[in-house]
Amino acid sequence: MPFPGSLAFSIRRTLLRHSDQSLSSVISRFASSTKDSHYAHAFEAMLDAPNVLHLSVDSEESIEQGKLIPRIDLKHIGTASVLGRREKNEDRLLACQLSPNHLLFGVFDGHGGSAAAEFARSVLPESIRYGLAALQNTVRKRGQSLRTTDLALFEPVMEHAFLQVNNLMMRHFYHYATARERLWAGTTATVVLLLNSHQVVVGHVGDSRALFSRHGSVTALTTNHDPNSTVLLNDICTDDDGRGMTEAARIKKCGGKVITNSLGVPVVNGRLGMTRSLGDPQLKPFGVTAKPQLTSMKVRHSSASFLALVSDGVTYVMSDEEIQSTIASCRTPRDAAECVVENALLFGSDDNASALVIPFGSWAFIMSANEDDQLPVYPLNEFGAQLAEQLNARGLKCQFVVCAPGRVNLIGEHIDYNGYAVLPMALEQAVHLAVATSPTKSVILSSSDTNYESATVSVEEALTFGSDGPPVAVQWFHYPLCAYHGIADYVKQNRMNWEPPSLALHVGGAEFGGLWPAAGLSSSSALVVASAIAIAHAAGLRIPRRELAGLCAQCERYVGMQGGGMDQAASLLGCENNAILIEFTKPLVTVRPVPLPSDVVFVVAHSGVHARKAATSMYNERVSECRLAAKILTLNSPKRTVFVDNKPLCLVDAQLAWGMARPGDMVRSVAGSTSIVKRFLKPGITDRSELSSVPLSAEDIDSCLTPRTKNMSEFHLQERAEHVYAEAERTLSFYDLCNPLTPAGDVENAQVITQKLGELMNESQRSCAQLYDCSCPALDELISICRSAGAIGSRLTGAGWGGCTVSLVPKAIVSEFMNRVRTEYYMKKGMKEEAVKLIFVSKPGRSAGYMAVN
């Protein structure tokens, strides 16, 4: 709540007047009104201490172990705050620069409205700024200077600011606030003053938290000020023996009461679950004080990772270690802050959740990236060598070759973009891309397949490809161009320096160990991955594979695809000889190797029907239908979840909003009751007019649609949601069955496991065909033949509407199986010449990488 101009002027005038006096006199005057007279003497005693060192706190350079200390700037700070399941966000974050070498940060969690948090965030910086000036003046009058001063000298500045802001806040509320705010408005405050990027002073009241990470471990710099705290504190008052008192004992000594409410939570006078806060005028006489807990420390950048401030909406559901682990897995502080608050929601927080992350010298993103997450380098294979020769023959000297495998999805179709885990494996077949430097400021794109036209565009065109929306007709060379744009976005987002490379990219067709196009084996995504690797490697950018996977998924938005990231992750993070379970957790994808039974193989067979995802709207229509279903289910959940910036919801969000443990719970009927999905989503066609009765506004509907689906008028919501939840459950079951297998794929009851895996694949196909409507007659026929030929399980793989099938086949009959499929399917359809190459045994291949050319 912004305070009126007249009061703002009064506050500023008071602070300016104080800045011309010694801080000790200001403290003395303030202490006399707050009955904390002992406070004034502490500051003078510290100035008289003989062990005060002298080094200007305003010096522009500081040295630690012979090296310049990294300078922390506001642009390095990560902040995030989400509404959660509350009607209003009462949290406030503060990040400001008081002087060239003094930064101030804070998290304020308001109660009784946001007025107190907003007031504290607005006034506290001015109070501390003038307090620092007063401290400087006081020291100079003593003939001294502030040079590497004992940090304890700055603690009175912090404490005075807290007490002063509290006093001004109550005065402001008395004159200008509502009746409710005058009585009950208050806020927590956890504030950090950072001096010269390496000296820290923390002031704290309430139950937000400051966490410091060093050498991979985390330490809480603050204590929750609640009646339940058993920590002995002697910063305010002591018992008769001079020992520290618990907060509850202090409240009782001041005449207050600690009452346990109906939820079993101890509260002061039945009103407040904290013993220290700013504001709360009705509770100040009963011991709820604004005097902060103070901590000061010097930071060694060589070992310190970060300092994080988080509100109780985070700490209520996440331990200090979980917060530290989340932050440590992120590349940038901004990602870290966003991931902390998003994970708090995922873990069930009902409150506003806020986080502020300050990076120090050993923060991961300024160090060399983890070698385990870097792209592998492979020996040059025959396909790469042939492509390199073709490029050389054009007068362009090949520098290196990139290979990026396709993938076959064993189970988990159309659920990655709904937030659920999928279970693919990388193929041995891969897109190969020969790379040379272009002689002009251009990008030259060519293919070994003469059916694909070459293209040349300027580097600037490549960097901005798709900015005005995806192309109406998608061409093969648009995929490398969208990779250029995606890399440019990444560089800008991470404030990296680069020179966009001028490249000649020559892609190999299927005859070069490649992938059939439009076969459901992710050839287009593999081309994007290969192109992104080529651009990053040529530009000298080291992008970890897990980040590159997400980057490539975002790239495809520029050709109109709204996918979920499975294809790119499988290509970049594939595990040779294993399938992988890919979980889409913030901030990076998580990949787990999945052993497969040793007595079976997976056979891939092409239906002969080409399915180009980007050339049709069917794929994006399913994305939009799932978003609408998710929004309806979420709006009808017991705890309606509201997400930041009205981002489109996916079906995993709806599951979390309903508090269901597993995705299958959303479609499971319990004790004869209707499942959640059937209760709120109509079967069959739902048109736009029916959506308004949910109710969904026109804006709600449009937010779920994409540029290519904005004209949709009919939706199949129940069927799409039923498929997604059941398929996600099947994927988890598939993983649970394979997990006990040894690396060699052996287990005692292997035959039983194999049979169950086949059943899950068959159920998946039924769901894809009947509920998600992504099969086609040719696929249905081919799958039927595969099952009759001996497949334990068979299903479509990839987006569907054509492309390939994948079948689980016993090793003992694989030759017989393949011959029978060739005879009964390909020969009958007049595909005699293609029969040999359109069906093959698929083995888990290696991940994407590059090959040096001598």
UniProtKB/TrEMBL annotation:
The keyword Transferase applies. Keywords: ATP-binding, Hydrolase, Kinase, Metal-binding, Nucleotide-binding, Protein phosphatase, Transferase. GO terms for cellular component: cytosol. Residues 76-360 form the PPM-type phosphatase domain. One of its GO terms (molecular function) is galactokinase activity. It comes from the Eukaryota. InterPro entries: Galactokinase, Galactokinase_CS, GalKase_N, GHMP_kinase_C_dom, GHMP_kinase_C_sf, GHMP_kinase_N_dom, PP2C_BS, PPM-type-like_dom_sf. One of its GO terms (biological process) is galactose metabolic process. The keyword rRNA processing does not apply. NCBIfam families: gal_kin. Belongs to the GHMP kinase family. GalK subfamily. This is N-acetylgalactosamine kinase. It comes from Clonorchis sinensis (Chinese liver fluke).
